[in-house]
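Lab notebook, bench 4. Still working through the backlog of constructs that have no structural model yet. Next entry is a single chain of 376 residues. Request: give me the C-alpha cells for it.
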Amino acid sequence: MKILVLNAGSSSLKFDLWETSPEAIANRSDRELAKGTIERVTSMEAALDQVFEKLSGGEVEAVGHRVVHGGERFQTSVIIDAEVEKGIEELSDLAPLHNPHNLEGIRAAQARLPNVKQVAVFDTAFHHTLPPRAYAYALPYEMLEQRDIRRYGFHGISHRYVSWRFAELHGKKRADFRLITCHLGNGCSVCAIDHGKSVDTSMGFTPLEGLVMGTRSGDVDAGAILHLILHEKMAAREVLDLLNTGSGLKGLSGVSNDMRDLLKAEADGNPRAALAVDTFCYRARKYIGAYLAAMNGADALIFTGGIGENSAEIRARICSGIEALGVAINDAANNASSHDDRRIGTAAVDVWVVPTEEELLIARDTLRCILGIPHE
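Model written out:
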C-alpha cells in the first residue's frame, strides 16, 4: 500500500511517501518513495498541490497524519471520521501551536483525496500507559477528574519507534528492556520505558514542560508565570508566546535556537551561549538520573532527534558526571561519523544513537488501522 504521511505545521508541510505491507513490516522492507518539505505555506490546499507535483511512484492509497495532542480520548491511532475530526478540533486549546495546523492538513487532504482513507497518529498515544503517580499533578483532584488537567506527554511516535528499533536490533521485543529515550531537537523530551510501556516522560499537559528546548522554556515555577501576569502586567497570551517562542536556548543565549550556532558562539567566548548549552545538558542529565531511579536502573540510554543523533559534543556533556549511575560514553564511538544505529557506550547502561523514523511508524500505523492489524 502506498501511504502519504503528512506533518502540517504553522508555515510548512512535511510529506513522505512510503510503500508498505504486513510482509514489508515483518521483513523491514518498507520503501520510501519520496519525501520533502513545502515551506512558507499560505494555504494547506496549495501546499498539497505542490506535494503532488513532487510525488512519484503512483497513486496514493491512504494518508497518515501526525497529530500532536490526542488528550484522554485518543489512546491509539484511528481512522479519521467526522467525530475524530471534531475531537481533534476540541483539543486545539491544549496544543494551540500544533493541533489547528494538523487539522488544516487533514481537511486539505480530504478535499484532495475524498475517497482515500485518512488516519490520525497521535504523539500522546504512547504515553497512555503512564501510572497515575506519573501523570497526576498535585492540584485539587477535581482538576484531574473534571477538567483532565494531567501529564499527557509528547514525542510518543519517536519514543515508540526508537524503543521498538532498539529491541529489533537485539532480536528481542520492546517488553524485554528498560529504556530511557532522549528525543533532542528543537523540541526535546525524555521518556522512561519500562518493559515496553511508557511510565514517565518529561513533557506534560502541553509540550512546554520538561527539558530546555529551542524556543520553549521547559520547567518553570508556576509562581514565576503568575508573577509576570500579576506584577509585570503581562497578558496571558504574551506569557504564552514568551514561553513557547521566546524562551529556551534562544531566550537564554540571545543568539539562536540552533545548537550548532550556540556551540560556535560558546567557543568564541559568548557567556550566554555557554549558559544556554550548560543548562540544556544539565536538565537532560537530571531527567536521566530521575528515570534511572524511577525504573531502578535501565538497560540502555538512547539518543535520537536532530541534536541527539548529530551532536557528539552534547551527548558527551549530558553523559558526563553520571558514571556512578552506570552511564559512560566511549569517546571514539561517540565521535565516529555515522548516521546509522550504533552503540556509543558499554558501561552498566548501554548508550546508543538510534535515528528516529517517525514517518515510517505513521505509515505503518496507517496500514494497521486500515487492515485492522494490532499496533506494535
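Notes after review: The chain has two domains: 2-122, 173-353. The chain has a mean pLDDT of 95. Flag for follow-up if needed.
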